[in-house]
Automatic annotation (TrEMBL), chain A:
Record-annotated membrane-spanning stretches: 12-33, 53-75, 87-104, 110-128, 140-160, 199-220, 241-264, 302-323, 329-348
Domain of life: Bacteria
One annotated Gene Ontology cellular component of this protein: plasma membrane
This protein's name: Branched-chain amino acid transport system / permease component
Source organism of the structure: Planktotalea frisia
GO function terms (MF aspect): transmembrane transporter activity
TrEMBL record, chain B:
Any one GO molecular function term: ATP binding
GO terms under cellular component: plasma membrane
Superkingdom, natural source: Bacteria
Endoplasmic reticulum found in the keyword field: no
Organism (species): Planktotalea frisia
Top-level taxonomy: Bacteria, Pseudomonadati, Pseudomonadota, Alphaproteobacteria, Rhodobacterales
Membership in a protein family: Belongs to the ABC transporter superfamily.
Protein name: Galactose/methyl galactoside import ATP-binding protein MglA
Membrane topology: Peripheral membrane protein
EC nos: 3.6.3.17
Start and end residues of each ABC transporter domain: 11-246, 263-510
Location of this chain's protein in the cell: Cell membrane
Keyword line: ATP-binding, Cell membrane, Hydrolase, Membrane, Nucleotide-binding, Repeat, Sugar transport, Translocase, Transport
Gene: mglA_2
One matching Pfam family: ABC_tran
Automatic annotation (TrEMBL), chain C:
Transmembrane segments: 12-30, 42-59, 91-113, 153-175, 196-223, 254-270
Compartments where found: Cell membrane
CDD domains reported for this sequence: TM_PBP1_transp_TpRbsC_like
Signal peptide segment: none
Molecular function terms from GO: transmembrane transporter activity
Chief localisation class: membrane
Name of the protein in question: L-arabinose transporter permease protein
UniProt keyword annotations, A-Z: Cell membrane, Membrane, Transmembrane, Transmembrane helix
Membrane topology annotation: Multi-pass membrane protein
Length: 364, 515, 321
């Protein structure tokens, strides 16, 4: 017999966790002497009240979809890829190489190759930790953390010493050529007569991210590979019985994970920055952890959670602009979401299971 | 002078009961063990021996019943209380810190004061004393993981003695020992008895009971079926009590008509991760249209034999299926390639291997066969086809509830097993490997599963059956092989042998066949 | 490089190694007891803020230190609750703690001081000031040894000496006391501890608490010793370098000292020189930044002296036969 119906596990547990995180966040706002209701209003207004706000919300959400999917795919193989940040940085490098050093007749071609290159760079950065985990048992959490820092140092070196245009003081690449400029939501929606803010950075990458969500859904639930990844994630001994190679699945799942994280760069580097700068990822790799936990590692859940976090990021920026609440409030909310949906999962789940059991007995 | 009546038993259990959910592990168990004796508790796997001892050591709380130590009613809520009551336990799986020294392991939890140095010095001294007193020699400064298994076990015994244990419980102590090490252990136990210690020996090996114990209790299915003086019983008598006269499972089957040889195994050896040889040069064959049953007490290499045949682990030797060699160690040695060669495998442990417990029934139906072209449409898996296939299988194998979307862990044990069986049998394999087909399965499903296995035989398939249930071996097998300590003790015709003979063979005793 | 420069670099090495060392020993206690802790960074950060904030408000660096330790202990408590009581994922808990600290410190700093997420600069009494060891002044003119004593050994704040003293203390606790024996045992095989009648939960909470105290001192040193006040994200990955050092040191106290001095040295070099000219080629400063992490990966891969973590690390203990 099931302890709890599936819907409760998939919906109720995350919602209660989110609620707990929200209540604590509200308390934090009260504690620093602000009005939580006014804060929420301001956040909603700032992020969803205008196409400008939406443009930013969706821009952030695009980043989080990629990194959230990255963490989710690794979770399915029971691995914790904490290296999304570094993989996304390398993805930026992949985008920059394609955009700067190859001539492109049209943005669409540039986008396709930039996407592939970003994914390849991100995957390459995930390969060594994956290989070491599979072959030598080196803990992937530790190695991916180390690779985040190594990525930052590598990027720093390349931007300062190699890719920086002569005469520039900025540790950044030159601006990408005009032909690699991605259409923004404004450009896309204009032909349909829909007015959308010109200033907002949301761009065609959002569509790629949504395609990635769908693709990951099919990968995980409809392909043989996804089947093997899930089987391995649930039971390594079972996987061995079925003839599924643990080494192969570990490496392949991490390559996909790293590739997805790397693909984020088409949004923040190619779409928004149009040049590669230091710290262009802005912690999105880590937010992917919260997004994947919140979305229960399901692509649709990741999609929703990414939009939620997009809203929080844009709303938080607005708050910082108009009140004395700093943007870091979002980091706190993110921490609480990770804490409640991830580490303290049992704290939410156990009483809930008891509750359902009580109702069951009541019925019988 | 004390007369026997004055001495209270070292341990007395009265009416101990313990249930895990619906499973009654111990039912109203009472024992009296007199001080200075060795008391054996014998029974098959899952008879409830270990549960009983875990209650005595404070790991589980009994639902009902009382414990008396030296005549005093004693509550044992945790291990600390057990230690304080003078009980020491040597677990089947040692509870040692492997990279600590012997000395450190001995004082852990029984230190004198906050500083280690005096504790270590004291322990070193008493270790020397204990060593000379009981013949328990161990280098106090050796790192435990560098010691042989036999010496590690001595450390466990020393741990208990250092804590002034008067009652020593040993759970299947010889399961991991070589015969020579086992002999040494029994010499030590005898010395301990002479010094007045009380020893409870849990085992399923008849010979150990006969050789060492003063009294013996037999457990079967959670119940204590008999307590007798060892000198007043015989191995045959104990074997009968142990296996019991269960309702004989009747399987209607016609005599087998074996045809060509399907499986040939020659000199197969399997070495586990720790470097211990588990299968020691086995040779056997299975013909089309026959069931070869492998009997034996769990842990004598049967699991490893099945695993290597099923491609889960590697080994050395020769395995031929339909006359062709099978790759044992190379790249094409895995479950996928075995299936491609017509070998189906119902593993012993359906929860860890045969099923993904968090997968739905239909996903489990494709498990291991998920690359089958019939389950694909283009690059995607054809989930609708798998579900339809599952529905048919669930109907034919009477899986209840017949809902392909139910998660595996929510089926009963028997229905889980039917899902595995349907998947493997309907592949129409040339050879079926099947381990513990009815472990944890309800009576109704047992009959059905047995019928399916016989039906497959009658279709002319070769079947290799491994079971620790002697009844099951008798009910199904056309030939019986007995495995002991990684080797085959011999083959028997089920019509010309009995439980007694097999029981002895399972304990490593081969009687001369009557002419 | 002349002699005085070497002394200066080494002096800077000691100061930069101090927070690493404290955090590394903190992680050592936790991980030796079987609780992985990737939240060292967050605990240090929280301690850095609260120590600076309280020191700024009260003018007492000692009260600041206590506040820093309290903040770090609070986060340790969350980690213990999640990973010991509720048997949650220790790694995810650590990640959450890092973010919680990163966000809350700025939030509270802004609310209290309204200086853009920093504390006011600490005046002298709000800081741990250098201690002149006896005769430092008098001996400074002695050739060679004089500068070593007066510049390198003398003239650090008390917490530097505390950190250095913590190394033998840790060694002593781990290998010479009953508590240490049990602590190491619980990280290797909690079942052995449990069957010996000792509480696994109690030991693990104790270890996590010690970890909190040491991280608290590390954070306080950052904000009130190394620097004069708290700024946003001032730990700058030191918690992770400490984690790297811990692996590099194979979870041993004296090795931890060497590893932290090495990593501190790399930081000191990176701080002083942009690029190191070795004649044939130059070593860019980023190599110095990345070297601790690269070395750790090499160690983890087991190509050079395999680092074997405590065997029960990361796994919640569930009682079984």
């Amino acid at each position: 017999m099931e302890k709890m119906p599936a819907w409760a596990d998939a919906v109720l547990v995350p919602i209660i966790s989110l609620l707990l995180a929200a209540i604590l966040s509200a308390l934090v706002i009260v504690a620093i002497g602000e009005d939580p209701v006014a804060a929420v209003k301001l956040m909603v207004q700032g992020s969803l009240g205008s196409t400008y706000g939406w443009g930013y919300t969706l821009y952030y959400a695009t980043n989080f979809m990629f990194t959230g999917l990255a963490v989710a795919v690794a979770f399915h193989a029971r691995m914790f890829n904490i290296g999304g940040e570094g993989q996304a940085m390398l993805g930026g490098l992949g985008v920059a190489v394609v955009c700067l050093y190859m001539p492109w007749p049209h943005w669409s071609l540039a986008l396709i190759f930039a996407t592939l290159s970003a994914a390849a760079f991100g995957a390459a950065w995930a390969f060594l930790p994956a290989y070491l985990q599979a072959k030598r048992g080196s803990h992937i959490v530790i190695t991916t953390i180390m690779f985040n820092f190594i990525a930052a140092a590598l990027l720093n070196y390349l931007l300062v010493n190699v890719m920086r245009p002569k005469g520039s003081m900025d540790p950044a690449t030159a601006k990408f050529p005009e032909t690699t400029h991605l259409p923004t939501l404004h450009d896309i929606l204009e032909p349909f007569g829909i007015a959308f803010s010109k200033a907002a950075p949301a761009n065609v990458s959002l569509i790629v991210a949504i395609i990635a969500c769908v693709a990951v859904y099919f990968l995980i639930w409809r392909t043989r590979l996804g089947y093997e990844i899930r089987a391995f994630g649930h039971s390594e001994s079972g996987a061995k019985y079925a003839g599924i190679s643990p080494v192969k699945i570990t490496v392949v799942a991490m390559l996909i994970s790293g590739g997805l994280a790397g693909m984020m760069a088409i949004n923040n580097v190619m779409g928004e920055g149009e040049r590669l700068i230091m710290n262009s990822t802005e912690g999105a790799g880590f937010i992917g952890i919260a997004v994947a936990l919140m979305g229960r590692s399901h692509p649709f859940g990741v999609f929703l959670a990414a939009i939620l976090f997009g809203f929080l990021y844009q709303g938080g920026a607005e708050l910082a602009l108009w009140t004395s609440i700093p943007r870091e409030l979002i980091v706190v909310i993110q921490a609480l979401v990770i804490l409640f949906t991830g580490a303290l999962d049992n704290m939410v789940r156990m009483p809930l299971e008891k509750l359902f059991l009580m109702f069951r007995k009541g019925d019988a | 002078m004390n007369t026997a009546a004055d001495i209270s038993p070292a341990i007395e259990l009265k009416g101990i009961s313990k249930a895990f959910g619906p499973v009654q592990a111990n039912k109203d168990i009472s024992i009296r063990v007199m001080p200075g004796t060795i008391h054996g508790i014998i029974g098959e796997n899952g008879a409830g021996k270990s549960t009983l001892m875990s209650i005595l050591y404070g790991f589980y709380k009994a639902d009902k019943g009382e414990i008396f130590i030296s005549g005093k009613k004693t509550l044992i809520p945790d291990s600390q209380a057990a230690i304080a009551a003078g009980i020491g336990m040597v677990f089947q799986h040692f509870k040692l810190v492997e990279n600590f020294t012997v000395l450190e392991n001995i004082i852990l939890g029984a230190e004198d004061g906050a500083m280690l140095r005096p504790s270590l010095a004291k322990a070193r001294q008493s270790l020397t004393d204990l060593a000379s007193e009981y013949g328990l020699d161990v280098d106090p400064d050796a790192i435990v993981e560098n010691l042989s298994v036999g010496h590690q076990q001595r450390v466990e015994i020393l741990k208990a003695l250092y804590r002034q244990a008067d009652i020593l419980i040993l759970d299947e102590p010889t399961g991991v020992l070589t015969p020579a090490e086992a002999d040494q252990l029994f010499r030590i136990l005898n010395r301990l008895r002479e010094e007045g210690k009380t020893i409870i020996l849990i085992t399923h090996k008849l010979r150990e009971i006969m050789d060492t114990t003063d009294t013996v209790s037999v457990m079967r299915r959670g119940e204590m079926t008999a307590t007798v003086k060892t000198s007043e019983t015989s191995p045959a008598g104990l074997a009968e009590l142990m296996v019991g006269r269960k309702v004989l499972l009747q399987v209607d089957k016609v005599p087998a008509t074996p045809k060509q040889t399907v499986l040939e195994v020659e000199n197969l050896r399997v070495v586990d991760e720790k470097g211990v040889e588990r299968v020691k040069g086995i040779s056997l064959d299975v013909k089309a249209g026959e069931i070869l049953g492998i009997a034996g007490v769990a842990g004598n290499g049967q699991s490893e034999l099945l695993e290597v045949l099923g491609g889960i682990t590697s080994g050395t030797g020769v395995i031929r299926v339909n006359g062709q060699d099978i790759d044992l160690t190379g790249n094409s040695s895995d479950g996928q390639s075995r299936r491609a060669r017509g070998i189906a495998h119902v593993p012993e442990d359906r929860q860890r291997e045969g099923l993904i417990m968090d997968f739905m029934a239909w996903e489990n139906t494709a498990f291991g066969y998920h690359r089958d072209p019939a389950y694909q449409s283009g690059i995607l898996m054809n989930n609708a086809a798998i579900r339809a296939d599952t529905e048919g299988k669930m109907q034919r194998f009477d899986v209840r509830p017949p809902n392909p979307k139910l998660t595996a862990k929510n089926f009963s044990g028997g229905n889980q097993q039917k899902i595995v069986l349907a998947r493997e049998i309907e592949r129409n394999p040339d050879l079926l490997l099947i381990g513990q087909p009815t472990r944890g399965v309800d009576i109704g499903a047992i009959e059905f599963i047995h019928q399916q296995i016989v039906a497959l035989r009658d279709q002319g398939k070769a079947i290799l059956l491994v079971s620790v249930e002697l009844d099951e071996i008798f009910a199904l097998s056309d030939r019986i092989a007995v495995m002991f300590d990684g080797q085959l003790m011999g083959f028997r015709d089920p019509a010309k042998t009995d439980e007694k003979e097999l029981g002895l063979m399972m304990a490593g005793v081969v009687e001369e066949e009557a002419a | 490089m002349d002699f005085l420069t070497i002394i200066q670099v080494l002096d800077s090495t000691v100061r930069l190694a101090t927070p690493l060392l404290l955090a590394c020993l903190a992680g050592l206690f936790s991980e030796r007891a079987g609780i992985f802790d990737i939240g060292l960074e967050g605990k240090m950060l929280a301690a850095a803020f609260f120590s600076a904030a309280i020191a700024a408000m009260t003018g007492s660096v000692w009260l600041g230190l206590l506040a820093g330790i309290a903040a770090s202990l609070f986060l340790s408590g969350i980690h213990g609750l999640a990973s010991i009581t509720f048997r949650g994922n220790q790694l995810i808990s650590g990640v959450a703690i890092n973010f919680l600290a990163a966000g809350m410190t700025v939030l509270i700093a802004q609310s209290w001081f309204k200086q853009g997420g920093r504390t006011p600069s600490l005046m002298s009494e709000g800081r741990f000031n250098p201690i002149e060891l006896p005769f430092a002044e008098a001996l400074s003119d002695v050739p060679f040894l004089g500068p070593i004593y007066s510049e390198l050994i003398s003239g650090h704040s008390i917490l530097v000496y505390v950190a250095l003293a913590a190394v033998p203390a840790t060694w002593w606790i781990l290998f010479r006391t009953r508590f240490g024996l049990r602590l190491r045992a619980v990280g290797e095989n909690p079942a052995a501890v449990d069957t010996a009648g000792v509480s696994v939960v109690g030991l693990r909470f104790a270890a996590v608490a010690i970890c909190g105290v040491l991280c608290g001192i590390a954070g306080a040193y950052l904000a009130t010793g190394l620097q004069a006040g708290f700024v946003k994200d001032m730990t700058a990955g030191r918690g992770f370098i400490a984690l790297a050092a811990l692996i590099f040191a194979k979870w041993r106290p004296w090795y931890a000292l060497s590893a932290c001095l090495l990593f501190g040295f790399l930081q000191a070099i990176a701080l002083r020189y942009q690029n190191i000219d070795l004649g044939a080629f130059t070593v860019p400063v980023q190599v110095m930044d990345a070297l601790p992490y690269i070395l750790t990966v090499v160690i983890l891969a087991g190509f050079v002296g395999k680092a074997v973590p405590p065997r029960a690390g990361g796994e919640p203990y569930v009682k079984e036969r």
